[in-house]
Amino acid sequence: MRTHARTRDSRHDRTWDTGMCSSADARDAVAALLASAHPAPARRSVQDAQLVVSELVTNAEKHAPGPCALSLELGPGARLLRICVTDSSTEPPRSRPPDPGRVGGHGLHLVTMLSRNLEVTVLPEGKRVTATVPLVTERAVSRHGG
C-alpha cells in the first residue's frame, strides 16, 4: 500500500479590489504554495505554473477593468495545480493567430500549451478562467533523467 503526503495548505486565494491585479504577486503565490507541496514539484513545473498564472493575471489586468481574484488549488499528491482568475469582463480570452514577428499576444498559446485544460466560465458580473497545470515531481525527474 502506498501513501502520499498531502500538502497542509493546498489552497491560496487573493482578491484585488482596486482592479490593480499583480502578476508578480500571483507568481510569488504559486512559488510559495508549491514550495510547501509534498512531493516537491520539479523546478520546471513551478516555472510553467508561474508563467500560466502570470499570463492569466496579466490578461485580466489589461482587458478587464475592476476587481479581480486569484485562486490556486493544489491537487492530491501535488500532481496538478488548478489556477482560477476571475475578472469583471464577460469577454472570453481570444487567441491571436501565431506570428513570430509580433511582440506580445502569445500568452494564450503558452497557457494552452502548458495546461492540461483551459475553461472559461461566464459569471453574472464577469468571467472565471481556469487552467489546470500538470506538475512533475523532483523524484519523477530523477527517475527519468530529465
Describe the protein in words.
The structure is a single chain. With 146 residues, the chain is of the alpha+beta class. The chain is 34% helix and 25% strand. It has a five-stranded antiparallel β-sheet. A hairpin with a 2-residue loop joins strand 4 and strand 5. Helix 1 (23-35) runs antiparallel to helix 2 and helix 2 (43-63) runs antiparallel to helix 3 (107-114). The longest helix is centred in the middle third of the chain and has 21 residues, at 43-63. The chain is globular and about 40 Å long.
Largest sheet: 5 strands, antiparallel
Helix content percent band: 25-40%
How much is the radius of gyration in Å? 16 Å
H/E element order: EHHEEHEEH
How many individual helices? 4
Instruction: Give the DSSP E fraction (strand runs of 2 or more residues).
Output: 25-35%
Strand count = 5
Query: Could you tell me how far the N terminus lies from the C terminus, measured between alpha carbons in angstroms?
Result: 27 Å
The average pLDDT value, as a whole number, equals: 84
Strand pairing plus helix content: what structural class? alpha+beta
Strand order of the largest sheet: 1-2-3-5-4
Spans where pLDDT lies below 50 across 5 or more residues: 1-8
